[in-house]
Amino acid sequence: MWINKESSAQAAPPHVVTTEVIIDAGHGGVDGGTSYGNLLEKDINLQLAQKLYEQLHKRRLPAVLNRTGDYALSDHNQWLRTRSRHRKDLAQRKELSHVISSRILVSLHVNWGGRGATGPIVLYQRNMESFLLAQQLQTKLNRVYGTLYRPKAARQYYLLNQSAVPAVIVETGFMSHPRDRELLTSRKGQSRIVKALENGVLSYLYLHGNGEVNHGEKHKNPLPK
């Protein structure tokens, strides 16, 4: 199930969709996120999100992608009256997590840092379920980058604080680092990152959800070997 530009603009009653995973593709439209030359974070986020959706679909795991093109979710906000495009965008993402009944929310972003900053960082809510999800994703992504990072507790992140389900923000790498940039933009690199995200999601659902998904089937031990 994809939420497209047209359907996301329509008012919806609570819990119109039941799924396992909401994939949040960060930024979009006039909000390009961080950048390097012609490379824009919003494009990388969308590419990774679409590929993750496709991989989960192959696993028969229900997922919803909240952005399928280059547009701002703030354009569709019906819940918050404000002139701030940024706040309207975040409010729209939050409300989608309320009207879509899901198990988890994974928000994809790209980082920027000082000289030498590299690797993935997974931010989690201050609750155990979010931490366990972040731990699985961080472990799998560390293997891609050769890092030993631990997930970080987030404080002032609107989406994490307001999400109706266990949620994490995944900074998939640093646009400012040459090696990270290669992983984030190359076909091979994106495949490795998406595989890590897929395995992290499946591991969490299998370990902490008894392997059951909403359609009543059970995964045949999706844990990576």
* Strand residue percentage: 15-25%
Query: What is the residue-averaged pLDDT?
Result: 81
Tell me the name of the CATH homologous superfamily. Answer: Zn-dependent exopeptidases
Give the second-level CATH assignment, the architecture.
3-Layer(aba) Sandwich
Q: Strand-and-helix sequence, N→C?
A: EEEEHEHEEEHEHEHH
The tally of strands reads 10
Give the distance, in angstroms, between the N- and C-terminal Cα atoms: 29 Å
Tally the structural domains: 1
**CATH classification, class level:** Alpha Beta
3D shape: globular
How would you classify the helix and strand content by structural class? Answer: alpha/beta
Biggest sheet features: 6 strands, mixed
Q: State the strand order across the main sheet.
A: 5-2-7-10-8-9
Q: Which segments are poorly predicted (pLDDT under 50) over 5 or more consecutive residues?
A: 1-15, 215-225
Q: Using only CA atoms, what is the Rg?
A: 16 Å
Enumerate how many helices there are, as a single number: 6
What is the percent of helical residues?
25-40%
Q: What is the fold-level CATH name, i.e. the topology?
A: Aminopeptidase
Can you describe this structure?
- By secondary structure, this protein is an alpha/beta fold.
- It has a single domain, classed as Aminopeptidase, CATH 3.40.630.
- Helices cover 38% and strands 17% of the residues.
- It is built from 6 helices and 10 strands; from the N terminus they run E-E-E-E-H-E-H-E-E-E-H-E-H-E-H-H.
- The strands form 3 sheets. It has a 6-stranded mixed β-sheet. It has a two-stranded parallel sheet with strand order 1-6. A two-stranded antiparallel sheet has the order 3-4.
- Helix 3 (128-145) links the parallel strand 8 (121-124) and strand 9 (152-153).
- The two termini are 29 Å apart.
- The model is unreliable at 1-15 and 215-225 (pLDDT under 50).
- Keywords: Hydrolase.
- Residues 102-202 form the MurNAc-LAA domain.
- It comes from Paenibacillus swuensis.
- It holds the Pfam family Amidase_3.
- GO terms for molecular function: N-acetylmuramoyl-L-alanine amidase activity.
